[in-house]
Amino acid sequence: MATISDVAARAGVSTATVSRALNGKSTVDPTLAARVQAAAAELGYHPNGLARNLRRQETAVLALIISDVENPFFTAIARGVEDLAQRSGYSVVLCNSDENEEKERRYIEVALQERVAGVVLSPTGRSTNVEGLRRQGTPLVAVDRPLPAEAGDQVLVDTRHAAAEATRHLLAGGYRRVGCLTGPAGVRTADDRLAGYTDVVGEADAVFRRAEYRAEGARLAALELLDEPSPPDALLVANSTMAIGVLEALAARGLRSGRDVGIVSFDDAPWTTLIDPPLTVVAQPAYEVGRVAAQLLLARITDSTRDATTTTLEARLIERKSSRR
């Protein structure tokens, strides 16, 4: 890809002259301007409009890199970020890493190349690398899953406490063998939810499976648990996408949530009240996570010397019939 330096070398002028000529500045001699335009056309050079606008402060763009655009939790975060950003004169570019480390890396590179004003990121896991953003001085806020403190501000939810509360709720409802379906090892939210569950049942009595944060993986993991000699009579499920797979597994075994297997799932997706019985959920304040993240990011853009902060929000248990006998 041709650069402004390539155009300057081809036209025999400085990069400043190239910039002025391509921006239509009247201070450039018409002969030089024509030479620059011809060199740019020969090389196929196109100015970086986004970066140029940011330098002029005509446009401000934030990158939002979320883990799974199909998960209602992350779309609610996106809405929170966008609503506040729009009111503050910023546009938001949405990137879906799809829980894929390579896609996440590429999107971070794009954010660097386009010199966005700031980034809100839901990290895929421990290998997330934001060193490039730090070196370039690009403000960053991590949401849902933490990064090292020096990386920037963070907005998290105390899901360990919420998982413990949900587990106690199932035991209080008369279920005696509570299991847990959580996400991949090394993903902080998955580890925290499992830890909250084991805080209540104890390591010795823990019955759990890990799977990708996807419906199919959860379906297969749930079938494994249900087919054990002593299957669980209740399940704590790490998110609403996994809950779909769990409900499919129950249907495949002729079981009904609540009556046969108590179910509590993280995240209050729109469909959770439309099924029979309605799903008991741990509702996370996803919109508020996004709103606070945008607020912190804009404050960081204004003042890069601010100390990094971690904001931890609370989730709440919403009891419905899937956790009642």
Structure description:
With 325 residues, the protein is of the alpha/beta class. 44% of the residues lie in helices and 17% in strands. It has twelve helices and twelve strands. It has helices at 4-11, 15-22, 30-43, 49-56, 72-87, 101-113, 131-136, 159-172, 188-201, 215-226, 240-252, 286-302, and strands at 60-66, 90-96, 118-121, 140-143, 153-157, 178-182, 208-210, 234-237, 262-266, 280-283, 310-313, 316-318. The strands form two sheets. The protein has a six-stranded parallel sheet with strand order 2-1-3-4-5-11, with helices on both faces. Strand 6 (178-182), helix 9 and strand 7 form a beta-alpha-beta unit. The longest helix is centred in the C-terminal third of the chain and has 17 residues, at 286-302. The radius of gyration is 25 Å and the shape is elongated. Mean pLDDT is 91; it is low at 53-59.
Essential attributes:
325 residues, alpha/beta, six-stranded parallel sheet, six-stranded mixed sheet, 12 helices
What is the β-strand count?
A: 12
Contiguous runs where pLDDT drops below 50 for at least 5 residues: 53-59
Instruction: Tell me the β content.
Output: 15-25%
Distance between the termini: 64 Å
Q: Specify the structural class.
A: alpha/beta
Strand order of the largest sheet: 2-1-3-4-5-11
Number of helices: 12
Main sheet makeup: 6 strands, parallel
> What is the CA-atom radius of gyration, in angstroms?
25 Å
